Amino acid sequence: MTGNLSLKETLLVFGLPLCILVSLALFASSDIALSNSLISKSITLDLIITIPFIHWVLIRKKDISKFSVLSFFVIGILIASFVIPEENQSYISFIKNWILPFIELGIVTAILLKIRKTIQVYRLTKNSSPDFFTILKKTCSDVFPKKISEVLAMEIAVFYYGFISWKKKTPRENEYTYHKDGNSISIFIGILMIVIIETFVLHKMILKSNPSIAWIVGIMSVYSFVQIFGFVKSITKRPITIDGEILHIRYGIMSEVIIPISDIDTIEFSSSSTVFDKETRRLSPLGELDPHNMLIRLKKQSTGTKIGLYGIKRNFKAIAFHVDQKNQFKDDLEQLMLSK
Question: Against a cut of 0.85, is the pTM above it?
């Protein structure tokens, strides 16, 4: 988003609007502003219109996503909701009720259109079927700041794999499953059953004493169920893939490692006797509960490779994981290594 900007430019395009925003927020809390409805309404307009406009003017000729203007718009609404007296929030209420829903719809539409376009381009340039989560992460990173894009991509992916993607995934050439012979699906189904039972029991226990807390706990439990359900289904939809000179080792949308084949030193059949440390890691987030049967050692330590949710990165020199077709996978990978 700001990789091509100097520190001075970054401070200008983001720092200046933030400074104005903080100054207005402080002024809105003063006795003068609180006692004058006209001043409060003027500050409201500055927070939600003037500041985003200033940011747009500063970035209009720069290689920065214009969606950052919306970030200032939303921040302005949030701050105005807290610092402006309730009796002077008529503008804020109008925007929340009549403008924000259209903006949210526009953002979702823009993301979906960009995903569709990216998939079309991918299909024209690749022989393999496109991976939805990979395309989704790229699309979100093009539109939103890095940390926001990672969280948003994960939340969209959970819903997509959990409730939209029902078509059975048939592995293509150079695609390998890892859920048929492993324990992962059974373990997650067990966790889902525990969540269901826990939700019902806790809700009934707390409902009599504190209904509000009971409903909060219930909503959190339902959210956890949706998350886990999406994770489980993604395991069956995202196979391990050899794509040209790149090996994609995946564990649904929870863990993923991308390794250039030229960086691989050895491929070994492995077992529970493997010793794990900072250089040798498991791909599965379930740890010892989910056995592995393959171990890939690299020629040098991998840096900045994702292992974990929401873009968490850990270094490693060897990665352990499970493959259903382990003999075929090892043979195919070793043939590619010999041809390099």
Answer: no
